Amino acid sequence: MKIIMTGASGFVGKNLSSYLEEKGIQVSKVSLRDRLWKKAFEENAGAIIHLAGKAHDTKSTSEKNEYFAINRNLTISVFNEYLKSNTSDFFFFSSVKAVADSVEGILKENVEGNPQTPYGKSKFEAEQYLLKVNLPQGKRLFIIRPCMIHGAGNKGNLNLLYKIVSKGIPWPLGAFENKRSFLSIDNLSYLIHQILLNKDISSGIYNFSDDEPLSTNRLITLMNKVIGKKARLFHLNKKLVITIASVGDKFHLPFNSERLNKLTENYVVSNSKIKAALNIEKLPHSAEVGIIKTIKSFNKKK
Hints:
Layout: E1 2-6, H1 11-22, E2 26-30, E3 47-50, H2 64-84, E4 89-93, E5 106-107, H3 118-132, E6 140-146, E7 148-150, H4 157-166, E8 182-184, H5 185-197, E9 204-208, H6 216-227, H7 238-251, H8 257-264, E10 268-269, H9 272-278, H10 287-300
Parallel strand pairs: 1-2, 1-3, 3-4, 4-6, 5-10, 6-9, 7-8
């Protein structure tokens, strides 16, 4: 099997392409910065995996129109080339943030979209365009909504959290009790591979997450376990912490309200739909196993 992949140079792209190649799948990596990128879609391929996009900027320094130009407009251009091609499957990597910035209960695919950020809105508008198209016979569209992805080489909020813990700094947010879903890059790669192999899976929207949510306090405990230290969880007054974060908003500091929400919010995502489609009960890696693997990769860089 051969697939075409955009955004292959990113964190997800590098890991996913390596995983698929190990499984005997040929990956043709396409840069959308190349003005001749459309020619790549003339190749015979089983699927197009569209990963290229503008990631969420937690420092809020990006121009709003950048998100729509890349996440919406460029996705539409790639999708239209797919429609003209002989390729059967199209994977669009969207995000749970395309439909919900906060979650009450458990997030499922049938939620009514209500994104609040330019990032989320641009992904949601791309989804809406794709879903309105009547697909030709023999073609399938998969809109993938992953939650927070992690793995070796990832430079997201988990890395920031690890830096704090590894320095021996007590965790001051112990008073915030939460549950949130994560997605290991290994489970993501497994799910994509299984969809590629299974031609009976229907087009649609699929949430990707690990099987079990974890609390931030549990993450702190696991990080300390990996580095051989005892977890130091302090329970500072919540109002004081929120005030400090608001100061970070004004002065564009690393610790701001968005970072605080990322670390303490409840955000549980259901993966029951994709597991039912694949007829599996559990993903290969538990949430804790995946997190520990990621933490160990941070520890090696010290």
